[in-house]
Fold this protein.
Amino acid sequence: MAEDVLSQSEIDALLSAISTGEMNAEELKEEQNEKRVRVYDFKRALRFSKDQIRSLSRVHENFARLLTTYFSAKLRTYVHITVASVDQAPYEEFIRSIPKMTILNIFSLPPLAGRILFEINPNIAYAMLDRVLGGRGVSFNKVDNLTEIETTIMKQLFEHAAENFQEAWSSIVEVEPIMEDFEVNPQFLQLVSPNETVVIISLNMTIGETTGMVNICIPHVVLEPIIPKLSVHYWMQNQQLTESKPEEYQALSKSLEKTTIEVKAILGEADVSIEEFIQLKPDDVIQLDQLISDPLRLCIDEEPKFYVQPGKKRRKMAVQVLEEIKRGDEYNDE
């Protein structure tokens, strides 16, 4: 079991007490020799390491960014979402910490077993509802008296938001969030046994001038099959695979190399009227906008890519590449 680590202020206070005589160094040595006993609560078993908690924090920081983009577009107002904390606690303790009446969305995550819980503070939920219905995003709390229309709108809002949860978790596991239930009273909800360890991700959410919390409760039974993937070793190994060229990437590159594209060397262009075009006859001359001393433009699928000069190769017309056309170069000549 790891020993307690003193902060700098505690170290300074300890040194000061020894130097002034308030504390005897010999007594301190005797205390260190005595066996230390730490109280351990078996009901509050910590089943996730700090490394795994940090990995979950990274995943949900990405989820918070995706949610910010989604709700900003959906509600057409200022939305800001950040991760406030990631903790683990017994399920019973989490249920006691949330309001008696609140917005609860229950999702399953196939192929993972079990269910997860999204708890949305009523202030935030009603601000969203007010924006969707054309209001200014004013919050009003009447969660114990939701109408059928309000319930349907809220369910749709968070059901679509769960698609961002799927994207945020895609780097670890492919899941398909499915909303299974919508509840307002946590006492009627028994997600897992009271002593089951759950991870609680708390998000700070601001919509316009309204602020509130969104809590995501993920039981240990849901994360158990993918716990090895929550380590730093897995993340670094996954990053190395991404940076290297896997077989699929090489196969795709070879397929693209065989793709044919249309390449044109533009000798010049001219604007003529319909009348002039109709009256054209053999030996007539059309003046182009291209000087004979200037290089031609080589277009790939109508997009100018290179400056070239005309010539012949093995008795066939050809062009020689002189220079790549940078973005905006084609307009500088005008």
Remarks:
- The first strand starts at residue 79 and ends at 90.
- The radius of gyration is 33 Å.
- The domain at 263-332 is CATH 2.30.330.10 (Surface presentation of antigens (SPOA)).
